[in-house]
Design goal:
Order of helices and strands of chain B: HHHHHHHHHH
Structural class of chain B: mainly alpha
Oligomer: heterodimer
Structural class of chain A: mainly alpha
Number of helices of chain B: 10
Strand content of chain A: under 5%
Shape of chain B: globular
Number of strands of chain B: 0
Helix content of chain A: 55-70%
Distance between the termini of chain B: 38 Å
Number of strands of chain A: 0
Order of helices and strands of chain A: HHHHHHHHHH
Largest sheet of chain B: none
Number of helices of chain A: 10
Radius of gyration of chain A: 25 Å
Radius of gyration of chain B: 18 Å
Distance between the termini of chain A: 43 Å
Largest sheet of chain A: none
Shape of chain A: globular
């Protein structure tokens, strides 16, 4: 709860804006500076546009769900079917296949943290499916209502999955030292996503009010899902606090950031500066010579 | 993984082909975000404006000189902004740019040097949050800015900072704790 307030306060800084007159003047100056090297506006040809699209497709390929579906499609020898399943919505014939593939993906993922990430991603996908269904124009409101009810059921199942997982972690009497960091990360991921999900579910509930053909039961189901998400969030928060307390009590280093010295999870060093200027570059963690950062000087 | 939207991809492609209009379009899309990010890292508004202008020029130079495709123009802009801010402070440390003439100092426009009556009109809540943020360690302030103010995903922040997603999450958690303490202290 405190975190939500803190985040809300931080978001107020989004009101910081550049001066409009500077913005215009800087744009003009920038374009004037690059003008000698620039060519007349480039219109991409079909071939170039295709290469831009395939660049995006290559990026999509690395999403875990898509990777898994493609691997299975090769084995099954029916990649078209698998792809069609990936895009199917509740009520479609291939939708059960999509759910089965997701379950398989979790089953064969060995790392617990990745399993939770997958489960959270599937929750997000259920929410997206619900949105798409609700937005679809239809001449058969009853059919749509059934599909929405199905989507809400799957959503509540996926949320229950995450809740079960985090509940299992919370019920452990003690968390061994090496596991604490992973547990913290899992709990933190769940907490972060839960806040976003609650907002999304509130929007969905509002959007459903007064829509013709949508049964009250669907709205009620979404409200129940929202409650589950809130409960999951609370469990994750308590887990974060408990593991944090454990670490403080045992003075066991818990959190390690690669490349930095080990600190405890409760370390909250605040370094005030005399002026409003932030730290000098010598104390910054930014490394301009890191090959991973493009050298643009 | 963040998937750049189609518009950004097309603009990046046109940028590589020396299309100044594409640079203008990218500027229009991201100038407010980059300005805000830089503003919270440098002392004055003037500095923020200068550094922000540099960032977009560097983007142009990078697109012309690099063989690689720009996979994520948004993340690249933030990476450039980070290195430009570091360069700003290094230059300042080397050249000692603070003028000696006091009359010049009075003329330096700085919206944050406000008179008593202007302060009455200022949104004190925003000022307090900004002050709290400036008291934080640079790496905490950076990750808070990218996540909650600029609303980048954890994956994008990891790309910008050159860290793993797990490390970013841990950093976020600590940074939020610090931010909460500072903001409660200011109440």
């Amino acid at each position: 709860m405190f975190e939500r307030e803190t985040i809300g306060q931080l978001k107020q800084l989004r009101t910081i804006q550049p001066r409009p007159d500077w913005q215009v003047a800087a744009r003009t100056a920038l374009l004037r500076q690059v003008a000698p090297a620039a060519v007349t506006p480039v219109r991409l040809g079909a071939g170039q546009f295709l290469s831009v699209l395939t660049l995006g497709f290559r990026q999509q390929l690395f999403q875990p769900v898509v990777m898994m579906l493609l691997v299975l499609g090769t084995f099954l020898g029916s990649s078209l079917v698998v792809n069609a399943a990936f895009y199917s919505l509740p009520g479609a014939r291939l939708y059960p296949m999509k759910l089965a593939l997701e379950k398989t993906q979790i089953a064969i993922t060995p790392d617990e943290e990745k399993q939770v990430e997958l489960k959270i991603e599937f929750v997000r996908k259920r929410v997206e499916e619900f949105d798409k269904l609700a937005a679809q124009p239809t001449t058969n409101p009853e059919e749509r209502s059934k599909s929405l009810a199905r989507a809400a059921t799957e959503l509540s199942r996926n949320v229950a999955d995450v809740q079960q997982h985090i509940g299992k972690l919370a019920s452990q009497n003690s968390v061994p030292g090496p596991e604490r960091e992973k547990t913290l990360r899992i709990a933190f991921s769940v907490q972060q996503e839960a806040d976003e999900l609650v907002k999304k579910l509130d929007e969905q509930t509002t959007a459903l009010v007064g829509v013709a053909g949508i049964e009250q039961a669907v709205g009620d189901q979404i409200a129940l899902v929202r409650q589950s998400v809130e409960e999951t969030n609370q469990v994750a928060t308590h887990l974060l606090e408990d593991v944090d307390d454990l670490s403080t009590a045992s003075s066991t280093p818990v959190l390690e950031i690669p490349g930095q010295s080990t600190t405890t999870a409760s370390s909250t060093t605040v370094e005030a500066s005399d002026s409003e200027a932030p730290k000098t570059p010598g104390e910054s963690t930014v490394e301009t010579t890191d090959p991973g950062v493009p050298d643009v000087r | 993984m963040h998937v750049m939207n189609l518009q950004d991809k097309v603009l990046s492609e046109r940028l590589k082909r020396q299309d100044a209009e594409a640079l203008g379009a990218i500027y229009d899309r991201y100038v407010t975000s980059i300005y805000r990010y830089v503003y919270l890292k440098v002392p004055t508004q003037q500095d923020a404006e200068d550094v922000t202008s540099d960032v977009f020029l560097k983007l142009w130079n990078y697109s012309q000189s690099s063989e690689n495709d720009i996979l994520n123009v948004r993340a690249l802009l933030y990476q450039i902004a980070r290195t430009t801010v570091v360069d700003f402070y290094r230059r300042r440390a080397r050249t000692d740019e603070v003028p000696n003439d006091e009359s010049l100092l009075e003329n330096i426009p700085d919206e944050r040097q406000q008179s008593f009556f202007q302060e009455l009109d200022t949104d004190l809540a925003v000022t307090d949050v900004e002050k709290a943020l400036r008291q934080m360690k640079d790496e905490y302030r950076e990750v808070i800015t990218l996540r909650y103010i600029e609303q980048l995903s954890t994956q994008e922040i990891a790309e910008v900072l050159g860290k793993s997603k797990g490390a970013v999450r841990v950093l976020l958690m600590r940074a939020l704790n610090v931010a909460r303490e500072l903001l409660e202290h200011k109440k």
